[in-house]
Fold:
Amino acid sequence: MATIIGGLAASHVPSIGGAIARGETQTPYWKPFFDAFNPVHAWLADKKPDVAIVIYNDHGLNFFLDKMPTFAIGVADHYDNADEGWGIPVLPSFEGDPELSWHLAESLVGDGFDMTMCQELLVDHAFTLPIKLMYPNAGARWPLRTIPITINSVQHPLPTAARCWKLGQAIGRAVISYPKDARVVILGTGGLSHQLDGERAGFINKDFDLLCMKDIVDDPEALTHFTNRQIVELAGSQGVELMTWIAMRAALGGPARAVSRHYHAPLSNTGGAVLLIEPASEPGRMAAE
Ligand code: DHB
Ligand code: FE
Structure:
């Protein structure tokens, strides 16, 4: 049976791609962020996940304001990256897992989440950079299969935190009902606080970010009580990317523990965060071994 072995939440600022391309990962500015992935690399080498379900938000590479699904899932056998204009080198294609994707789609729709199913999907920096950070030395082929799940964070009305929590719970149920063996890691990419436009451009709220870093591990349902308006006020207009963290954490379910955590601001315009968590009792791990 498929098991969820852990969850990784990480900021996805596009300039990470430029820093990698220019060989700047060990400069004073970038080193703390890139070094935060050292424990993630050790964990991945030990746990060897087969599949990553990547919960992220598309920023206009695949979906645009004319047609914006609230929730979408990739069901393709591969996902291409493309030039999205940030100066990030285009990364190699990502292998999909159509069988698990269709299982998730069936289960989620049956569970009341009417996902848009994508047999073609271009993946942007929010999907590609966290995987590149997980596997910096991967060549043309990534070491695990991938399933993209998008949450609309761009075109209002946005789904609520409470709804994204329930989506994550449904993803968790779907994974553990898959009869085939697969070690699954769930990613939630984006955040933490940032606002890229308008009068508050550059807004970062370290106190709120640190509250999120703590609550997402120990008391994640507390975060679902914020309205979208409150999240925008507290975390900036793009701080709503927190929804991807909330869905990731809900998919893990139960008590969890942090394996490693890192926060520093600013990272580009953002409260930069990396958080690796495991189910506290590691039930998934025991079931898989
Ligand atoms: C930045 C952060 C994002 O999440 C994003 O999608 C684009 C830019 C930034 O901090 O610059
Ligand atoms: Fe973003």
Summary: The mean pLDDT is 96. Residues 12, 59, 126, 190, 238, 241 surround fe (iii) ion (ligand 2) (CB under 6 Å). The radius of gyration is 17 Å.
